């Protein structure tokens, strides 16, 4: 068995860009083999794998739309066949379809629920069996502070992020005795494509609510995710860590 085959394998959903990309890089740097899931960012995912393998670990890109149960099943089979059992799952993939409730179309609700919440259920259900068998596993899901405090124009998105928190706390309770931890990172206002679409006045208003005085960067979030994966957090499960520059402190 080679050195890289002995390493633990982490699967990061939606890792081609944004926060997922930073998480995949950070885990690679810390010695994990990384399965890079993407939906449409094929080239970016391939390039990322090149950057990760430069750390001396293995990285491969896998296309799958994680909002679809059958694609998630196929994703896990492909990852297991070529890289081994997933020991660390990072549920990162997510979308927004913002609208005021009175105008919100059923599609806008359904798409966000499928991409943000159903995906977390499908991926965690697939990953848990191997983790139970190994009696070790780390699951981290990306929620959002709006799942804690709500946000006008994001009833669909906020509902999925609050749903992730309830789901993860249940998983944490169900599998704590099996050596598996399940925690949530709730980012605030992070500089990625997701927030890049916001109008200047909205960005300025958000910035005014951040005590540290700047937007977060993907690496700020990746550090918190890596903490939940590390041995330093062995006694932490069912927790929600807001990475928000102090926006929601209470
Ligand atoms: P982003 O820049 O818009 O990137 C979204 C990522 O999710 C992309 O890699 C995309 O893949 C992937 N994705 C979306 N739907 C997918 C699907 N059905 N199957 C597979 N991959 C899918 O977003 P981000 O800012 O990095 O956000 C990452 C996570 O953090 C999300 O869960 C988001 O809700 C959460 N978050 C972000 C912020 C923020 O301020 N940015 C704040 C709170 C929470 P492709 O490019 O391959 O299509």
* Ions, cofactors and other bound molecules: NADP nicotinamide-adenine-dinucleotide phosphate
Order of strands across the widest beta sheet?
A: 3-2-1-4-5-6-7
What overall form do the CA principal axes indicate?
Answer: globular
**Alpha carbon gap, first and last residue:** 50 Å
Computed CA radius of gyration, to the nearest angstrom: 17 Å
Q: What pattern of helices and strands is seen along the backbone?
A: HEHEHEHEHEHHEHHHE
Give helix % range.
40-55%
Helix/strand/pairing category = alpha/beta
Poorly predicted ranges (pLDDT <50, ≥5 residues)? none
Number of strands: 7
The description of the largest β-sheet is: 7 strands, parallel
| Chain-averaged pLDDT | 96
DSSP helix count?
10
Strand content: 15-25%
Give the arrangement of secondary structure elements.
Blueprint: H1 3-6, E1 9-12, H2 18-29, E2 33-38, H3 42-53, E3 59-63, H4 69-83, E4 86-91, H5 106-134, E5 137-142, H6 146-149, H7 155-175, E6 180-187, H8 193-196, H9 200-207, H10 218-229, E7 240-243
Parallel strand pairs: 1-2, 1-4, 2-3, 4-5, 5-6, 6-7
Helix pairs in contact: 2-3, 2-10, 4-5, 5-7
This protein binds NADP nicotinamide-adenine-dinucleotide phosphate.
NADP nicotinamide-adenine-dinucleotide phosphate binds at residues 13-14, 16-20, 37-41, 65-67, 92-95, 115, 142, 144, 187, 189-190, 192-195.
